[in-house]
Structure formats: C-alpha cells, structure tokens
Design brief:
The chain is 56% helix and 4% strand. It has one domain (3-131). The protein is built from 4 helices and 2 strands, in the order αβααβα. The radius of gyration is 18 Å and the shape is elongated. It is mainly α. The protein has a two-stranded antiparallel sheet with strand order 1-2.
C-alpha cells in the first residue's frame, strides 16, 4: 500500500496533533513533578502557536484535505513549521503555576489527544473497509 494514499486523508494532520499532545503532556508532567522545587520556572508549549502553524500547513495545500480533490493521491504536506512549534517552550514570569492549573491543562491536552486518536482510528477503519470492499 502506498503511503501517499494516507496523505489524501486527515491522518498526517492527526499525527501532528498526537505528537504535539504527547510532548506537551511531558512538559506539563514535569511542571507537576517540580512544583515544590525552589526557583523552578513553569514551562509550557503553546497550543495556540501549534494550531496556527497546523492551519498554515493545511492551508498551503487545501486540496489534500478535501475529499473530492482531483488527481490520484495528494502530495505530502510540509509539517516542518508545525513540528517547530513543539520546540518553542514558553517560560513564565518566574512564578510557579498552581497544581490545579497544571492538572487542568493536562486534562485539556488529554482531551485533544483522545479526540485525534479517535478520529485517526475512524480513518483507518474507513480505509480498511474500502480495501476489503465493505461499506
């Protein structure tokens, strides 16, 4: 099966969401682990920057995300700017963020991850049904 077939689906974009969520979860978990460390500065990876870069990457090739695009399979989308968003760690003003805030952010991040994973599973189920000629 050609990997270019997956580029005609939302799977590459969902992969980026999963990668971002995984990296952000690690940063947030580190914040919780270091809440009582003197002088520790809370860190975060900006979901807004990630979402903006993901939108830009998808807008650069809108035909790849439309279900009825012409041609065989869509070319690979350049997600390099999206991946770079995970490297932009924001350092807050030195005040530690409370445990409640960190846990809330982790719950939101987990929700984003679960949503992307569910959609990706559905995409694979659709592809499997199409391959096996079931509807």
């Amino acid at each position: 099966m050609s990997l270019s077939m997956f580029n005609a689906t939302t799977i590459p974009a969902l992969e980026q969401v999963l990668n971002f969520s995984e990296k952000r979860h690690a940063v947030l978990a580190s914040n919780i682990a270091n809440l009582d460390t003197p002088g520790y500065r809370s860190r975060d990876i900006s979901p807004e920057i990630f979402e903006t870069r993901l939108k830009e990457a998808l807008a650069a090739d809108p035909s790849s995300m439309s279900p009825g695009h012409s041609g065989s399979f869509a070319p690979e989308i350049d997600f390099s700017n999206v991946r770079d968003a995970t490297r932009e760690i924001l350092f807050h003003d030195g005040s530690d963020v409370g445990l409640e805030h960190q846990v809330t952010e982790m719950a939101k991040n987990q929700g984003r991850f679960n949503m992307a994973l569910t959609i990706m599973r559905n995409q694979f189920s659709l592809l499997q049904a199409a391959i096996s000629e079931r509807v």
